[in-house]
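# nightly structure sweep
# worker-07 picked up a monomer target from the shared queue
# config: single-sequence mode, recycle default, output format = structure tokens
# input follows
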Amino acid sequence: ENFMLDLTSSNSFSEHKKSITLREYVDYSLSTEIHPHQLSNETYYLFGQTFTAPWVELLKSYKLPPCQTCTRDLSALAFGIGAKGSGVQWHFHGPGFSETLHGRKHWVLYPPDKKPKYDPDFTPLYWMEYSYPSIDSKPWECTVHQGEMIYFPDMWHHAIVNLDPYTVFVSTFTTEHGVFN
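# output follows
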């Protein structure tokens, strides 16, 4: 119950941080639904700040995706929990996989040469409800359900919205383009 979490803001830059206990965050996630007009730099999310010894120990039991570069020494794991409507606004980084362990995550993606128009401080839910209907060039999109995994290519723009009262997931960041086994 006193296990401390470091949360980051849900905007494109994850620039704001705060620490709370795991119990406080689980209670928050189960009782909160993010709404489109909330600012993403004012909503917090457990993701990416899971590199301390307790998290590393927990993630040792995670089965890595089946790719040549998905080894313990060539990849980084990040654990996440998000409330309904939470997610991360448009961003990009190197390649990897994201597996949903509980709940569902809706992904929207554009290739590197098609940068989406968005405000980094608005939530991805806002973008989905107010920007998406009027754009001509729709993104690739899918919903990843419990037990499913998505591969996100190198430098692809993507945003994610969690669809259920809470969503639990693990992302595996690889060091290069993976070649599937």
